[in-house]
Design a protein that fits this description.
The complex is a heterodimer of chains A (about 220) and B (about 625). Chain A has about 220 residues and is of the alpha/beta class. Chain A is about 55% helix and about 15% strand. In chain A, helix 2 (about 35-45) packs parallel to helix 3 (about 60-75), helix 8 (about 155-165) packs across helix 10 (about 180-190) and helix 9 crosses helix 10 (about 180-190). Chain B is built from 21 helices and 12 strands. Classes of the chains: A alpha/beta (about 220), B alpha+beta (about 625).
Amino acid sequence: MRVVLAEDLYLLRDGLTLLLEASGFDVVAAVSTGPELVKALDDLNPDVAIVDVRLPPTFTDEGLQAALQARRKVPGLPVLVLSQHVEQLYARELLADGAGAIGYLLKDRVLNSDQFIDAVRRVADGGTAMDPEVISKLLASNARHEPLAELSPREREVLELMASGKSNAAIAAQLFVSEGAVGKHTANIFAKLRLVPSDDTNRRVLAVLAYLNRTGA
Amino acid sequence: MLREHALALVRGLALFGLSLVAAVQSALAIVVSCAGVLAGFKRERWLPNLVRRLVARWTGLEIPVPYWPEPGPPRPERDGWYRWGNQLYRKPGPIARMQRFRWLLKDPATHRDHIWALTAPVTSALTVGLPAVLVVAGFLVHPLAALPMAAVGGAAAPALLRIYSHWTGALLRPTTRTGRTSLWAWVMGRANVLLKLAATFGLSLIGVVHVGVTAVTLSGFLGPFAAQRQPSRTFLNRRRRQIGAWTGVRIDVPYLPMPPPPAPRPDGKYQHGRMLYDSPHLIRYTQTFTTLMKDKATWRDPLYLILDPLVSLFLAIVPVVLVVGGFFGYFWTWMWSRPISFFAGFDITHDWGYLGDLFPALRALPGWLTPVAGLAAAIAGLLVCQACLTAHGHWSKWLLGPTRSAQLAQQVDHLRETRSEATDAQAAELRRIERDLHDGAQARWVAMGLNLSVVERLIDQDPEAAKKLVANARGASAEALVELRQLVRGILPPVLAERGLGDAVRALALDNALTVHVAVDLPGRVDAPVEAAVYFAISEVLTNAAKHGQAEQVSVDLRHVDGKLRATVADDGRGGADPAQGSGLRGIQRRLATFDGVLTLTSPSGGPTTVTLEVPCALSSPRTSTSSETA
């Protein structure tokens, strides 16, 4: 799988390249500035891009803008955005096109290499990987809205994991319950939030995220 | 046919009689009202009402009752006091009286009633009363002549009744005219200005007294307190405000700040130079005196007080003489001299009164020019009076306003104050960051380092234990990262650095548990320090709204207007916020003051609360960001 990596800190860029190549990815470009990233995304047409939000030369949201621009050109281009901080505002912008294949994680998550590689794979396959912190912020700012307040604590837990992009199997493994039990919970959640249930994990995640972003409004 | 005429005749005579009663009654009510008793105005209304009803019944011409509804009893405010304008009263009585006054005096129907009643004897005598008048006149000529006159009157009676009813209806029905005409309003406005000009001259005469007051207080005859207080300064400060209100020329207070009261030494004595004193009074007097002597305004004030009567006399006399002499002297007396000379047989005025004595050539002009010239002079006076008043404002500002050096001195004072507050705030911030780093991340990294050094020793002998320690170290590093992230947010939120104020406030709104509507109209980026100050101020205000105000909906409006960044935060909470009672608003005020920014708060008890922050600043780089959204 061909990866373009954009990260301005040399140590982190090197470490990530090592980690990705050790996990069987092919890092076709590891760049350190915004313009380089735009060029690499244009020329190399990678399977997934891993992008730091803040890049030279402006050190603002250069990386994010480049990623959004590339996705406008190639809809659904898998992009995993990394940042030192996560914002609901950016998450909304990334999810706005509803095409999926989006990841938005804190850089800390790189420390847990297995989960990180799993997230990269999920995004490359068209799935979603949202940082638990984004999800908990989304839920917190929605906490007072009616349907969410009706969820049981367990259902909230499942919703959080589901929204971060995990499959039923992964949720079951994390919560130490059977996959069937998770299935029942998700059915309940969808009923309570009045969403149309779907067996497709990716579509399901996008529906939940869209719901949370909408009720935020 | 005959019956109709007879009925109209009787009805007309009844109305004629009522009109005579109305005239007497109105005259009485007006005379009594001059003594401040308005009860007559209310009681006399039975008669116009009766006339309205009679006219409606006899001629079918409906005349609606035009009076304003009577005011109800005054209602107390929440705190039990009664409010009238900006004045509070303990008891409702005075307000009820004032309400009645206004109700009766401001109602145009009251005055139209009076016009109707006072003219009714004449108008009715010429219409409905005409048959009676004709009979009496005929009888006086020859007793037999009364009969044909009565016949004529009876024949005309229905038509006369209709004419009188229309006239009555026109005056007694509600008027559609809400206020005076614009010409009348203009004349009254100018007359007001004229009065102010005259009052300006009067006040300048009172000011002359204060030259003496200044001299006495400066000389120290009245003791150190008088020097400190300076009653003439109080007087002039009031004059500054009043001139500003009347002329629209704002005059700032020019005085240097008074020295702070001397502080005692540890042994309780007060030191001044090389001398020690038991009490602070003498030092205080000396310092006050020195400041007063140094202050240029101390010398400009008496100069103004001495010159102002001359200047304001010069400015006031032209329009006042033009209006009073022109209108009353030439126009008004000329108007009245005609009917008076008609009855009395002599002329009370000569054409071109005093001016004619000065310039005999004027007498050669035709007489009708006199009132025309008078009216023209009056209009000219009304036209120039505003300019004269404004000129007085500028003249006052020239001597009473701060000189350039006084302005600079005041500015330096203000800057010194805000700078010291800014450096204090900065120092406190640095201390907080240092403490957070010291107790948080730094400590965690020490622990991590320790852990790793143990791992180094254990890794060969006990790999299992070493693995556990490495996992611990990773956990500690993750926690340290979380802490650092929070610390960074407190120093400068990353979104603010990456996207600027608009998006940072939007992100803030998204993370807030309240429903926050954000509207941003900033065609560029604001200076970074201002941006941060306003961001933290808005954040604090939002926190307050949720914590103290129990709000649910908040709207934030950010825009750049007239060279100022303006943020308006309005919530639907219970209000009652007061910067004096802590709650962080004072802190925001202080921090904004560094940028000459101001915070205004309106928060009546019961809500809603609106906080407006205004900071003068420029916008850079035309990156458009205009949108509105809700979180």
